[in-house]
Structure prediction request, 693 residues.
Amino acid sequence: MIQIEEHDMPKDIPSTTDPLVVFTPSGKRGHFPVGTPILTAARQLGVDLDSVCGGRGICSKCQIQPSYGEFPKHGVTVGQDALSEWNKVEERYKSKRGMIDGRRLGCQATVQGDVVVDVPPESQVHKQVVRKRAEVRDITLNPAARLFYVEVAEPDMHDPTGDMERLAAALKKQWNIDNVHADLHILQQLQPTLRKGSWKITCAIHLGDEENPPRIMQIWPGFYEGTLYGMAVDLGSTTIAAHLCDLSTGEVIASSGLMNPQIRFGEDLMSRVSYAMMNTNGDQEMTAAVREGMNALFTQIATEAGIDKTLIVDSVFVCNPVMHHLLLGIDPFELGQAPFALATSDALRLRARDLDLNIHPSARIYILPCIAGHVGADAAAVALSEEPDKSDELVLVVDVGTNAEILLGNRERVLACSSPTGPAFEGAQISAGQRAAPGAIERVEINPVTKEPRFRVIGCDLWSDEDGFAEATATTGITGICGSGIIEAIAEMRLAGIVDQSGLIGGPDQVGTPRCEPDDRTFQYVLHDASASGGPKITVTNPDIRAIQMAKAALYSGARLLMDKFGVDTVDRVVLAGAFGAHISAKHAMVLGMIPDAALDKVTSAGNAAGTGARIALLDVDKRHEIETTVRNIEKIETAIEPRFQEHFVNASAMPNSDDPFPILNSIVTLPAVNFNQGGEASSGGRRRRRRA
Prediction:
């Protein structure tokens, strides 16, 4: 018999001594008897783990990745004997069809002790929708790597110089490229290539920088009519997104993304820092995981675009400081404690082989500078994309993610801070939460009179009350609610008088709808109930609202703190950046109090601004120097030592705020004056309800 963790079910469910099984990235968990197959545990918890053969060890769809060591976030220590031993079925499958080392078949591996199990993307029925698309931008094309056609003097008995020296001389004379270097693999190809091309050759040359001389990356006989490629990578805590660009045109050839495989070590940054601190070689495990993930992503994109990966000769990376250190193989220990010192905050110029990346081995890797502490290269990329330092208006740029980076500024000065919002905005810590995938509720509306909801799910353009919705969602189903959906759901509940300013959900008599039903000592609101037909029951609970309140309070407090430092109470514009920020409704965000009060037409989305900044730096080398100068002039505010941050946080826990008045918002919407706290009476005259002690 399954026993669910107490925060997932009513408090009267007894505890158990059975082992705890925690699934990532969903966060779902439960206690199961020793000997329970992982696939069975996943099915009972509603975890998205695929299986076609019914658990007979044939299809391999149920592959899982167990994690071992200490997991303070989950309150468990996972031993090497947490799962049953590798068996003949798994060995037979691996020997015939191959399987990544460390993977197990969920139908064969059984529970033997507390265990943390990651469900990789390819084992999920509902594949992740990575929403970090490439934004359309005008970018000056000035790449670091280019093609040069050269005619080389033939060797002569009277001039005994080598072929490489004569090629270098031709490049200097014909293209004014001086002091060019070449790796050994170029020298190995050079003589046959020159002779095949009748002493005419095309060179792919990285033009170098202040740290590196120009270097020949690739050579072709005669005139090469192809192109070179570069990769712009946004390495986030939750997702890795990459854009393959044609360096001759600037065009984005292909874009894709995947879940950051480090999620199995912890959903938030501090959990990963903690994992590195508490597990020997934990940082190395996470470094290997993220590099393997990126290599898989690069292979996928190159295959999709139909190009040879060795033609990818330049790459730009942006990431937060913890990801920055783990990518580089640097222990993030110092980032887990004050004063949050970085190993380096300067821009880095490396080669692909330094990071074990499977593109051209001599490909250049440029990593944007970090601003400071927990404001990283991704925030620098946002600054490069949105250019607050060139704005006449005072603009607030909020990159919404697991760790929010916030910029406030204009031509006079730019301030920056980070705020630990956690993973709630991405569907984690939410009872019916999931990441953005087909079938997830992403839009919500609630009728303020009838209190009836309607919604849309990812993968379907119809609303739930429109004809054909059931047929259109038959394949994906309605599986849960993602970050943008939970934001809209709670904001709509506030607008409909279902939830009060403090975040409490009213009872059915107070609110006037049976959709508000008891949930232990509080209430929950039913968005969708398919339990009668064996489907899910999707609700919004008070713990869900608390998780969003904590996340949005951290976000707002960081913004408000920067406004204090700037000496202002209002801003001229608000820009929402990030994959999640691109899908937030400005009105709903303001109803919750995620962002400061502003005219709705002054709240815009920049999409994946960090990814856009990475593309700008990839395609225009001058912008690399520009952002390095800009970063040095940005003023970093450390929220951890600012006394007013906590004050703002407490006020921002209310919806939208217990202190700031939000006059513009109140001129647009009317927030019902309901109070469900301690038997408080709803404005509609509902019956008092006494809460149990």
